[in-house]
Amino acid sequence: MKIVQGIKKPNESFIIKDAVALKEPLVLVFGNRYMLESNQIYDEVNTLFPDGHIVFGTTSGEIIDDNVLDGCVVLTAIEFEKSSILVKRSNVADFHNEDKKLGERLIAEFPKENLKHLFVISEGSTVNGSALIEGLENMENTSFGLSGGLCGDDDRFERTLASYNENPKEGEIVAIGFYGDTLEITSSNYGGWTSFGPERIITKSKGNLLYELDGKPALDLYKTYLGEKADELPKSALLYPLSVKATEDSDPLVRTILNIDEVENTMTLAGDVPEGSRVQLMMSSVDDIANGASYAAELAMGGRKNSPELALLISCVGRKLVMDQRTEEEIEEVKAVVGDNTVISGFYSYGEMAPFSGQDSCKLHNQTMTLTLFSE
User: Fold this and answer.
1) What is the pLDDT of residues 30-41, one digit of tens each?
2) I need a labelling partner for 161 at 20 to 30 A (CA). Which of 91, 149, 321, 347 fits?
3) In what residue span(s) does the FIST C-domain domain sit (predicted)?
4) b/e map 152-182, b = 16+ CB within 10 Å
5) List of residues 6+ apart from 39 with CB closer than 8 A
6) Please, what sign has the CA dihedral across residues 361, 364, 370, 375?
7) Cα(60)–Cα(348) distance, rounded to whole angstroms?
8) pLDDT at 85 over 90
9) H helices within the chain, ranges in order?
10) Cα–Cα nearest to 317, from 130, 99, 149
11) What is the mean pLDDT of residues 336-351?
12) Distance (Å, rounded) from C-alpha 191 to C-alpha 188?
């Protein structure tokens, strides 16, 4: 595996570190939405890697090595020497918000034989990540890993962009399939958030749209808890996500709010919030988040046969808001576990995709650090 990385700052060209020639590389380009709106961004990257498979995604912060950047673009180009990749894309507009069907159509484009892992870069503004995952996992007689994340737009929640081999645009979902017997790919996630306050029951919801808690308008209740911070919704919701437990035996999932509808008094969350689920508010601290990142890295490293050569990190924008000027500490914690020889890239997101530890089925998470580790 050969890896080249670069950084582009506003009004500057890419600065490529340790540039070497790569053959048909996978080129991951994560960046600030305003910078990826440039009509020249694809041509600029394509000039650097004319035979590359170029995947773009907007962010709420860019990760490269143990640094967290804002308002920049980070590039990671990977040549797999013994393995192969296949990239496919689709758009939510073509499926009329039927995200499960989109996932089913997308996974059907990937040959089943030797598919080791699917890494997904999804638009993050409107997609129901739970439904998308359910569709992507609808592939019979095949076992493959699934991880990835929802693109971000800092804390603006205006629009997110992604693309494959073209300028980034709205509504895109890009899936990267990894094939090869020599590939070792592991993924994990962990949060570090603590529940508090009364437990309530979801009495009315549809998919990722939340109407009522305990028979009362959910948005009104949430605003009551937020107090003065309610005026800053949906940004302020990142500091107080919801713990959602669908059944007594299920692992709780963390959900953050993507949008609110003042007229309908509803909240749109990044993933499903089933009726009958028990929910609580959550909060965290800088130390809890840093420790959570370290534990996520330990889970990803557990049972690996080989040291990872590449680590793709997707962490939630809510964690970044809590960490503030200490954000890089959670990346440093990850690096301390995966090792100095592992190339690190990634971004801050509106949602993370990974299975719970010890499970095969992928879930949509919020407020977690998610790692996907690669070696050949």
Assistant:
1) 999 999 999 999
2) 321
3) 218-356
4) bbbbebebbbbbbbeebbbbbbbbbbbbbee
5) 167
6) positive
7) 5
8) yes
9) 33-36, 41-48, 99-107, 129-136, 218-226, 286-301, 317-323, 328-338
10) 149
11) 97
12) 11
pTM over 0.85? The answer is yes
Compute the C-alpha angle 128/122/21, nearest 5°: 170
Tokens 């330990």 belong to: 298
Residue 50: exposure state from Cβ atoms within 10 A (0-12, 13-18, ≥19): exposed
What's the mean pLDDT when you consider all of the chain? 94
- The vertex-279 CA angle with 275 and 281, nearest 5°, equals 150
Scanning 227-302, the segments in alpha helix (DSSP H) are 286-301
Of the two residues 168 and 264, the one the predictor is more confident about is 168
What pLDDT, on a 0 to 100 scale, did the predictor assign at position 69? 97
Query: What separation in angstroms does the CA of 107 have from each of 11, 354, 373?
Result: 38, 17, 22
Question: Is 268 in contact with 208 (CB distance < 8 Å)?
Answer: yes
Mean pLDDT across 48-55: 97
The pair of structure tokens assigned to 325 is 């000027």
Are the C-beta atoms of residues 149 and 354 closer than 8 Å to each other? no
Q: For residue 71, give both structure tokens.
A: 């308002």
- Please give the Cα distance from 170 to 294 (Å, whole number): 33
Residue 38 has, within 13 A of its CA and on its CB side, a CA count of 19
Mean pLDDT, range 23-49, rounded to an integer: 97
